[in-house]
Amino acid sequence: MNKVASEIVTHRGISSHRIQAMVLRYWYLLMSSWPRLLELIYWPVLQIITWGFLQNYISQTSGFFARAGGSLIGAVILWDILFRGQLGFSISFLEEMWARNIGNLMMSPLKPIEFLISLMVMSLIRLAIGVIPMTLLALFFFDFNFFAIGLPLIAFFCNLIFTSWSLGIFVSGLVLRNGLGAESIVWTMMFGLMPLACVYYPVAVLPAWLQWIAWMLPPTYVFEGMRALLIDHTFRSDLMVWSLGINAVLFIASFATFLALLRSAKRVGSLLGGGE
Amino acid sequence: MVDSEAVPAQSPAAGPQGPAAIEVAHLIKLYKTTRAVDDISFRIARGSVTGLLGGNGAGKTTTIAMIMGLVLPTSGHVQVLGHAMPEQSAEVLGRMNFESPYVDMPTRLTVRQNLTIFGRLYAVRNLAERIEQLASDLDLKDFLDRANGKLSAGQKTRVALAKALINRPELLLLDEPTASLDPDTADWVRQHLQDYRRTHDATILLASHNMLEVERLCDRVIIMKRGRIEDDDSPDQIMARYNRTTLEDVFLDVARGRVAEGAP
To answer: What ipTM goes with this model?
Structure first.
């Protein structure tokens, strides 16, 4: 037994090596499957081509959009950061459910917070694989340099990715608790946010009572901020601060909900198996 | 019904059979109105091999899952290697491991990749060497770089066993460790478990339907039925009590409600 004890390194707190192990697990998976890699690039490319041509067409026929300097393409790319960020997080989680590996992980020294951090890292990796080709296409085919947004892009990106992680954590908890029968929520939840986050139009378009709800969502501030930057050439830092504040609340709430759902999953015994 | 009240009343750290690896006291698990586990108590000494016997729905898997912390008890207490579960699970999860037919390993990853991931999760030192050693011990070398999903049932079981042994656990929980294996492979796995227990002074708790397996491996047998402990003793004592020559006959007696003279 002493021999055994000496072999084991006991770790308290968050362990980077366990997070690295999980990231390595998802990396192995991604590299072992070309359809998974292709899927990461396929939809973003289709999106940018469709919306790029639409932007070109509208610019030629509408003076406003000609002045708006790629606000549609910008919105498409930022929306994809939000949407793919959540999918990147949730799909890595679903891989564990599909593989019936959750029991192995929960029984290992891996802590829930380490598991979630590894999913966040994977969402960034998957996002980079999908969105970087998208931005290059926008630059070379539609003359829109996404990176020319400059420093505000960091604020936009951080706020969107925080929201995507919060939603990813929440839906992962739902799937953990309710099994793969709840999988469809992973694919559809973000689309429920789309009309209220005002991705392609200003908040002012919404009825007054819906505007109140829209301003409760962190991405709304980002898309408004993007339009202010591209149309009015003004960086609205106040919008970014509001977005960050709401994101902080959302992130804490989603993590607490995940832990509650994990506990509930242990209560009903859904960690063994992980089927429907 | 065995009165196992006296067992957990012993000192939490030590008893006549040495320090405890597992202590379970008045454990109850309700799934809505179903009593999956109904007020069971037992204590398992370190270095022992204990079999949980019982038919389908007897509560074996739920009991093991509660010991592992994967299922929360409705009431009662579990201590593993001296720590309360699941509250202090972080203290012990690195010192134990398990194998169960209710979980799989990722199918697209190779055997080596899977063992690497779990080895890292368990912070195993000299991991590459450990994987080579397990591959040699469990005869995995021929398919170490093959995807887990492309292995036969027997090969997958050996890989799952390698994962369960990767951190040289002090406590090994096994749920049907030889299910779906041919007799030769099953015998081979049993031999390996015996060797592991002997060389590492490990504690093993296994749930099984295979009576020969339990007779061969276990120092002690806990028979469960409808969530309760029906009997708890060494295989020889239990067979003597039921006046039977095999555990299979005892199992059938218990399952069919036939209680021999002297049986509890």
So the answer is: 0.84
